[in-house]
Amino acid sequence: MKIPKLEMKQVCAIDQSRRGTLKSLAGLGLGALAGSFGIGNAEAASKVTMGFLYVGPRDDYGYNQAHFEGKSAIAKQSWIKAVDQENVPETIAVQKAMESMINLDGAQVIFPTSFGYFDPHILKIAPKYPEVMFLHCGGLYDAKKHPKNVGSYFGYIDEAVYISGIVAGHTSKTGKLGYIAAIPIPQVLRNINNFTMAARSVNPKITVQVVFTGGWANPVKEAESANSLIDQGVDVLTCHVDSPKVVVETAEKRGVFSCGYHADQSKLAPKGFLTGAEWNWSKIYLDYATMIAKKQKIPNLIRGGFKEGLVKSSPYGKAVSAKAKAHADKVRAQFMKGNFVVYQGPIKDNTGKEVIPKGKGYSQTDIWLESMDWLVEGVVGKTKG
Amino acid sequence: MSGEESQWLTVLIAVLGGAIRVGTPFLFVSLGECLTEKSGRINLGLEGNLIMGAMAGYGVAWITGSAWLGVLAAGATGVVLGFVHALLCQQPRVNDIAVGIALMILGTGLAFFIGKPLIQPTAPHLPALHLGAWSDNPALRAALEINALFIVGVLLAPAMAWFFRSSRWGLAIRTVGESDDAARAMGLNVNLVRMLATMAGGFLAGVGGAFLSLYYPGGWSEGLSSGQGLMAVALVIFARWDPMRCLYASLLFGGAGALGPSLQAVGVTSGYYLFNAAPYVLTLILMIAASSTKVRSGMPGSLAAR
Amino acid sequence: MAFAPFLIPLTALLLSLALFGVFVSLAGADALAVYHSIYRGAFGTWFSWQNTLVSAAPLMLTALCTALPARLGLIVIGGEGAVVVGGLAAALTGLILIDTNAWLALTGMALAAMLAGGLLIGLVGWLRHSRNVNETISSLLFNYISIAILSFLVIGMLRDPETLNKPSTHHIGETHMLGALGETSIHWGFAYGVIACVILWLLFKRTTFGFAVDMIGGNVRAARLSGLSVGRNIFLVCLMGGAAAGLAGMVEVAAVHGRANTSLNAGYGYEGILIAFAARHHPLAIIPMAILFGGIRAASGLMQRDHDLPDATGLVLQGMIFILLLASEAVFARLALNKGFKA
Question: Which of C141, C310, C327 sits opposite B283 (nearest CB)?
């Protein structure tokens, strides 16, 4: 009963947001509809062709692999023909790749899976092909501005990061955690903040040291960052880069704990792996496929976290204590019910400024959280380069 | 020791450790390039050797279960690419830089293509020597966890310097590098000497690649090299074609690469992009400063002539 | 021998295609079907042609960045950096001129981009001439430095706070974007590329400046004796090459992104080097070569989708073509030497 109330309050704050309408709709969770559309001319007998585009290699143990696994899950359906293309840069190349899938492969549904594919690339191509659906991973859809045949989906993976933070907080002995991140963008900052607040909910003395590598895939920098953090006494590492492989492996080699990201990395660190935040794209891709098969209307916006099954935690590793498991499972259950508010004031940033006053809270679906440009108290690091 | 002091100490240790860990591939590629350039040819394709070496080394280590066989295989692919480079370059009117770029593209493409099934498996890593076991400082112990390949590289530098200075073969390479005509007058087969030097250089670059995939950062992925092979070519000029200076320059470069992350790890968080660019700016400034003199000490004559 | 300049590269192209066929067969694909996919993806339909020409547009401009200095015997590989600084300068100028009309804004953007790219490569040339700094290495270093500066600025002071998860500069304004050629989906960048190649060809072929450059490229000492200012010509030629690549950066901003961001660093500069060498640094030959390589870029997606080949397949094909072209050059030179005349 708490949540709707909070949302009512936020309306004024949100009015200034350029994506105002989105928030109120997002509040509906999985069923969030901002207008909807169906596949126009798909004949039941013939196969539906779906095209997937990834920004990196499809077997990167990370972001792109998570999408590839989702694609592989639906490719098994007999009535779907799924084609995919990897390493598509966020340039005109992605426009051409999408058009090529439509013109040469006859794709009726396109899944461009990188955030940077949306503006300007999808927005430019979608109006040219009104009969094709463009379902973009990133949750950027705005009914007022964007074409009707565009849809958007995204998962609140920060919920799973919060769970990792709890486990990390219970496991750390030094009270120092390390976060290796690519660049300080809102998604990354939100994950860092969630991780920190979760760990500090266990032990308020914990600090999280952030290192920005400056790029999404730079193994040498990531390894060097991991080593530097471990040298500083950090004993649990996690990361937000395209492929967490190097960070998890380096942590294992140096004998410290690690939390994964994007996909399941438990195999890479049999001793020190705790848990990880994973996408569960096969769920949403199967949902889309079912909607198409049943000729249902496709919602333009789908967002969700644990409750909607869009994110999950990797299985707990050996080092996770029973206490940590119990705590993490309890909070996850609250997320599943949809009544856990991470950003509940009072919250200070790491410069000492109060960003959320006492008594104010922002629920998961709140759009305000998506322009986050601050780091919470307890994080050592800056948001500006 | 106060907390602050110990922080700076760990930065220093991290830079030291980074110099060794990050510097080793630079060391092998730059020694390889130094050998090739001494014979009068530039091989810009060593980036391709590095990536092919990383892939082949990882693949062979995975299949055979022996990391050292992987290192040999990486070197062998480097020899093959070096052979192709030398073969093409000794033809009339073929530019060695162009051949280098071609081999860089082909090597990278082949490595990515063939290496696809190698991204997921875990191959055995090269063992490390625990030279820091005497210390009770965990950071120092980690920094001194040294791979045998690094030691090989460190020994190779003075060996190569001696080789150039005092051995008959070294003299042959230097003569060929100085002037085709002088070499021919001495009865040397210019093309053969260059081919052997390029193949040996290719071997070293391949080994540098194996260090990346089999030790640090470890694993095979398409983003593994961030241009270390290309930068090593710059390092050789920076080091004025002296193997010992290649060693120092590689360590400097490795340390500079480690500086950004380690400063952030102690809370110095400003300007990391600029820190990341520091090694390149440094090289450029030193190149400009060093190049002003008319005397180009150490530069092989046939490179200077063009 | 009159056909040789065409016949030999063509043979090289066919040979590399054959070699590539063997390679993909070994990887388990049907070579004939792969050829068909390349044809279909690059040149098979009008759609594919447009795709190819759009891919070729920036490549023509970045190829000039290597081809022009090569006439002086300099090997410049700084096209990537020139694209980046050109795109950055174009976006900044576009933002300054945001309240003016489109013509003025686009002209200003193009000039600023050309100036920025030109000065960068001009600096490379100047360093080479006056301080003897190796131009290949310095231009490589400038690539890394330019990219670092771009990243630093778009995530910091130049960032549009609305570009939440993909840091970029502010948008130059939809009305100031560079449009398409007629009814096609090919943007004006293609025309810029062709025009630049033709103008520079005329400049080098028909003017005393071009003659002077060829003289310096042939023999520096002789050129100096005949009173030519070597330094000035080196600087000017590098300036032109850099300006061309800078213009490619402007096209990326004005025709594609509307903003400057790290997508400017898309490898056009590096592929341009390859095209310059494949075209033997001849400005007119760059046009078909860029179209050929643009076609491979355009078709590489289809190779992935139809045959489940990795994305690096296109890179392998490019590498093979490049190697065999260089080998064919050698064969050509041998034939010429044997016949006893200068090629």
Answer: C141
Place of tokens 């990243």: C151
3-state secondary structure of B174: helix
Per residue in C29-54, pLDDT tens?
999 999 999 999 999 999 999 999 99
* Every domain of chain A and the residues it spans: 22-156+281-304, 162-278+321-380
CB-CB contact of B204 with B35 (8 Å):
yes
Model confidence pLDDT, tens digit, residues A285-317: 999 988 888 888 889 999 899 999 999 999 999
Q: Which of C61, C32, C37, C38 is nearest to C295 (CA)?
A: C38
Mean pLDDT estimate for chain A: 87
DSSP secondary structure code for residue A159 in this structure: H
pLDDT in tens, A188-236: 999 999 999 999 999 999 999 999 998 898 999 999 999 999 988 999 9
SS3 at position B173? helix
Contacting residues of A for B257, CB less than 8 Å apart: 220-221, 224
Residue C43 per-residue DSSP state: I
- Which distant-in-sequence residues (6+ apart) come within 8 Å of A329 by Cβ? none
Does pLDDT of A14 surpass 90? no
The pLDDT of B265-270, averaged and rounded, is: 78
In whole angstroms, what is the distance from residue C284 CA to residue B253 CA? 41
Give tens-digit pLDDT for A110-132: 999 999 999 899 999 999 999 99
Intrachain domains A22-156+281-304 and A162-278+321-380 with the same fold: yes
The C-side interface with A (CB below 8 A) comprises: 40-41, 45, 47-48, 51, 54-55, 151-152, 155-156, 161-162, 164-167, 185, 252, 255-258, 263, 266-267, 297-298, 301-302, 304-305, 310-311
| A93/C266 Cβ within 8 A | yes
What is the SS3 assignment for C193?
helix
Q: Of C208, C189, C164, which is closest to residue C290 (Cα–Cα)?
A: C189
- d(C-alpha C32, C-alpha C302), whole Å: 14
Mean pLDDT of C99-106: 95
- pLDDT grade for B292, boundaries at 50, 70 and 90: low
CA atoms lying within 13 Å on the CB side of residue A352 = 0
For domain A162-278+321-380, give the CATH number. Answer: 3.40.50.2300
Separation between Cα atoms, residue C136 and residue A56, nearest integer Å: 29
Spatial CA neighbour of C69 closest among C199, C216, C196, C198: C216
Contacts of C164 in chain A (CB under 8 A): 185-187, 370-371
Token pair listed for A110 = 């396109």
DSSP string of A103-134, one letter each residue: HHH--SEEEE-SGGGIIIIIHHHGGG-TTSEE
| Contact predicate A265/A241, CB 8 Å | no
Question: Which pair of tokens denotes residue C272?
Answer: 């341009």
Residues with Cβ < 8 Å from C206, sequence gap 6 or more? none
B105/C315 Cβ within 8 A = yes
Once rounded to an integer, what is the mean pLDDT over residues C60-74?
Answer: 96
The model's confidence at residue A28, banded by pLDDT at 50, 70 and 90, is very low
CA atoms of A16 and A74, how far apart (whole Å): 39
Q: Is the ipTM of this complex over 0.85?
A: yes
A-interface mutation test, from C165, C170, C172, C302, most A Cβ less than 10 A away: C165
CATH number for region A22-156+281-304: 3.40.50.2300
Indicate if the pLDDT at residue A20 is higher than 80.
Answer: no
pLDDT at C9 over 90: no
CATH architecture of the domain with range B3-304: Orthogonal Bundle (1.10)
What beta strand segments (E) does C91-247 contain?
Answer: none
Helix, coil or strand: residue A48: strand
Distance between CA atoms of residues A175 and A189, nearest Å: 20
